[in-house]
# Entry
Amino acid sequence: MPNENSSIPKNETFTWLEPGTWRKPCIVHVTMVANSRQALFGQLSHNGFEAVVEKTPIGWAVINQQRRLLEMCPVIKILADKVMPDHHHMVLQVLRTMPRSIREVVRGYMQGCKGEARKLGFAENLYDAPPFFRVLTHKGQLHAMIEYVKANAERAWQRRQNPDLFRMHRRTEVCGLQFTSMGNHFLLDWPDRQLVEMSRSASDDQVEDRLRAVLAAAHNGAVTYTAAISKGEQKIARTLREQGYPLVVLLNDGFPAAGSPQERFYKPGGVYFEACSKGQLLLMEPDESAFVNEAVMAATEETLRRKAEAKHYSYVRVPVESLRYRFVALNEIGRMLVERGREG
# Structure
């Protein structure tokens, strides 16, 4: 019987999936969503130690169907699985080349689940969409896949307990600029603020010196703003997050588009989820209008010009649509947010 919290396999050699090789050895994370997101598979609760899903008969049928999947396809191994109230996950490893693709195998598994649901008296379609596949493409991804599945119930419980911290706001206005945001908006009102901006060429010693200064300010009550683009910025943001200090992170294209299917169920990924649930994080993505704001454009152009001159280059205007412009603009927007209210 597959275990919902299967551990990460030890001493295994994995073959990374290439395009068009769905029958060959691979690892995939599959998500199957219930019809209209109904809670068909269970109810979320907490036993005092951890979040749990009390499964319905259909939820148990989904689990039991996994045994049949393994019996029919012995070259498949279930590395992790989790049944949630309105969806369920499996991380599957294909050990050897199969006569059928993993897509066909999963569709067959879902058909089996539908059949079991009908036996239990559920007349509607159990799923209203095909399975969603995430394919393992590089080393280091497997651990994140399995940890995501294992922690799914706990994340859902935290979201339920802190709904305001996980509500997406499409029109957050600061400094006359519009943002999409999610997290603890009270961090914007904090009077002590600092910006973390580090050059990509900063040495390890420079990053460490800056990290010490940033931590000291955070310890004394400053909220840190950063776009977390360069490796130095990412290291400082990671350390602040791990030590429980508040962060405001500026994103480029970080939220799903308004009106998209992903919008309703969006939540911060991986490392940011816990910080968000504790009220220690605010994510902010500038609206497109912010990137062409007169003040933002002037500050960004000045910075780009200064960087070019420092390298003895003749400055050529950078298109607003380019990532180079947008990354520099994010830091300039961060500077505006940090320095607001300090005039005079």
